[in-house]
Amino acid sequence: MFAEALRGLISRVTKVPAASSPSQEPTRKPQEKGTYYIKFDPHAPETGPFTKSELRALAEDRLIHKRSLIRSGKTDWYQISNVKGLGLPLIEPPSGDKVR
Fold it and tell me: How far is the C-alpha of 88 from the C-alpha of 53, rounded, in Å?
C-alpha cells in the first residue's frame, strides 16, 4: 500500500511531456538532476534517486519527516533536518517511531 502511494506520488511530480519522436528523450533542467537517496526511517531500505522537487513533494505529503535519513550520491547518511539548503517543510515523526 505504501509503495503504491509512493509510486503514484513520484509519477505525479516527475511527469514529463511526451516526446514527439522516439529519438527525442525527455530533458530536465540541470538543477532538477536527482542524486538524493532517502530512508523513511533508520530501518527502512533506501529509496531513490530523487530530485529536490520530488523531496519537496514527499515532505508536503508528509511521507518524510525530520528524522528521515538522506544522502547525496555516495556520501554518508544524515538526518534530513540536519542538511542545510534543502528548505523542506518537514514534520515531526509520528509518535510511534522509535529511533535508535
Answer: 10
pLDDT digits (tens, 9 = 90+) for 50-66: 999 999 999 999 889 88
Grid cell locating 46: 533506501
- CB atoms near residue 82 (< 10 Å): 9
- Answer whether 59's CB lies under 8 Å from 68's CB: no
Pairing relation of β-strands 47-50 and 78-79? unpaired
Instruction: Return the bridge partners of 50, or none.
Output: 36
Q: Assess whether pLDDT exceeds 90 at residue 37.
A: yes
Is the model's pTM score more than 0.85?
no
pLDDT reported for residue 18: 46
Half-sphere exposure of 39 (CA within 13 A, CB side): 14
Longest dimension (CA), the chain: 51
For 79, the 3-state DSSP assignment is: strand
